[in-house]
Amino acid sequence: MPQRVRLDRLGGALYLALGLAVGCTTGPGAVVPEMVEAVALDSVPVWTGVATPTGRVTHRFKWLYRDDRSSVGGRGSARIAAPDSLRFDVAGPLGASPAAAMVVGDSARWVDAPDAIREIVPSYPLLWAGFGVVRPPVGATAVWAGQAGTIGAWKVVAGADTVTFALDRATPMRLTAELRRGGVVVARMDTELTAPGRPAKATLLVPDRPARLDLTFTLSDTAARFPTDVWRPRRP
User: What pTM did the predictor assign?
Assistant: First the structure.
């Protein structure tokens, strides 16, 4: 069995790319709408169906990281293969500080340039949500579900972590995922989608720094072919 490694312990490789956002000292707004009606938990699989990977897709994006000390950007890509495999690559300006990682579900199989990775995202659900995918932690238990118009919202609990998801099926679609640990907001990802599986932009906020990461997607290609070594590290 592969060792499970949480993203908040990977320590370094994609800090430049998937690090996080200014202007959030007051914290983001509520994930769950005020006027929400509790519904049966069996509604959750129906809502998540439109945010579950099918086949293969390559996303390309531009990123911009800002905090109270710096602002830096670059380009990146994410290759997703259903049901649960993700390879992402990022680099800074002019291709500086390239890094990559391969994730299966909530486990990192390998990380390239680990000394450069730092605090990508506090949990895998938020990383997946940035690409428009709902993927709760392994072993998580759904404890609540609610609906308000086109918005379905639900909470899952895994150990000390509570992740709240909200999926708005209006146009444009929006997926929000917020992680609380011990009742405190750790981070939140907000993603806008032009269609299921096609993210347009995403924002990751970490209130206690404050820090902000903006992703602007330039391509979502479902016909792209993956290299034969896509799931292997770039270097031995």
Answer: 0.85
